[in-house]
Amino acid sequence: MGVDKDQILDRVGRYHRELEQAEFIPGVTQLLASGAVLDESDRVALVDAALDMRIAAGTSSRRFEREFARYFGLRKAHLTNSGSSANLVAVSTLTSPQLEEHRLRPGDEVITVAAGFPTTVNPILQNGLVPVFVDIELGTYNTTPERVAEAIGPRTKAIMMAHSLGNPFAVREIAELADEHGLFLIEDNCDAVGSRYAGQLTGTFGDLATVSFYPAHHITMGEGGCVLTANLVLARLVESIRDWGRDCWCEPGEDNTCFKRFDQKLGTLPHGYDHKYIFSHVGYNLKSTDLQAALGLSQLNRVDEFGAIRRRNWKRLREALDGVPGLLLPEPTPGADPSWFGFVLTVLPTATYTRRDLISFLESQRISTRRFFGGNLTRHPAYVDENYRVCGDLTNSDVVTESTFWVGVYPGLTTEMIDYIAKSITEFAHQNSPAGAIGVGAPR
């Protein structure tokens, strides 16, 4: 008697439904800052792909790329094995010789922010380019068009920055600035899938956008990332750099889709050299697998639901913490509708407690906290000997290095959990502040 796949998948679904759901116990249950939210359909999708032994990039990967590009209204999406790899591919794409006079060359400058995650900056350095660091605003934790405009110099060729913790930077204005000066714009959209600015999805303003599918992010594949673009020329270069740097565009298992596999002459290779083994870029193998894509397709069905829960949790925390002494509360960028990645707090210099005090208390209450990524990256040992330029001061980047952290709003947190986080912060702040002290919102 044969084994019926549908029966196996039915049992997988039943297994998921019978898993015991842990009860939330305040002060005992660990409240993560971020994490994957996986349901029965996710488990079934992953097992389904595994049963078919789809262990390399294939049909699920191509389907996810089409559907994810459609979600953004863009022409092309290319999966990668991480968001960091997506950033590497995006920057490397702009150095392609096929872009001729528009290509980025060693020594060219790319404007970015000093306070953020390192893999937004590392590909700039890895391609021999020069990061130009600008400061951010407290409250929104993004930079401003004015700071970017001031940083533009004779060798500036691109702008690359992240929408901070899901809160969009003023991307329409910065895209217009880039267009005015003939600069490329890469949106690091890893923390902001589903966020909007001026009614438009982030990730759709720039020449290229990147996304991460690490479990902390809006949807997950476990590991994984993506590069998106509306530009078919750039899309072709993205694919080449992601796929070993090869010139051929055949899918794995396909041959001679160009009908010239053995009838081309490129470089100084002999005429007719197998096109499948001609390399036009210094590339990598940064593809993902169908196992990851199958999970991603299942998760994509819930991307708007997840965004709504993130917004709900953020709003609930923001309202509950209004006026809490010693804290600067976050604000959305004007004109933005963020799909929040986290709820960021800065302990004010006038507070009678420190960030360390508050974090220690929250962690003791089983409430996970995270720093504002690397804070001021120029202060890290990795960048001591690197070539970069700073425009203006980095005062606020230093503030977040010393005084800023965030707590979770991801969909795995219920309203009861959010209320517990708010209650814990409020009680600590009041117990450690003089009577009459109040917190403030972000400066407007």
How would you summarize this macromolecular structure in one to three sentences?
The protein is of the alpha/beta class and 444 residues long.
**Looking across the biggest beta sheet, what order are the strands in?**
1-9-8-5-4-2-3-14
Radius of gyration: 23 Å
How far apart are the first and last residues' alpha carbons, in Å?
A: 71 Å
Low-confidence stretches: none
Q: Helix and strand succession?
A: HHHEHEHEHEHEEEEEHHHEEEHEEHEH
Report the strand count. Answer: 15
Shape: flat
Text of the CATH class of the largest domain: Alpha Beta
Beta-strand percent range: 5-15%
CATH topology of the largest domain: Aspartate Aminotransferase, domain 2
Keywords:
Aspartate Aminotransferase, domain 2; 444 residues; four-stranded antiparallel sheet; eight-stranded mixed sheet; 35% helix; Aspartate Aminotransferase, domain 1; single chain; alpha/beta
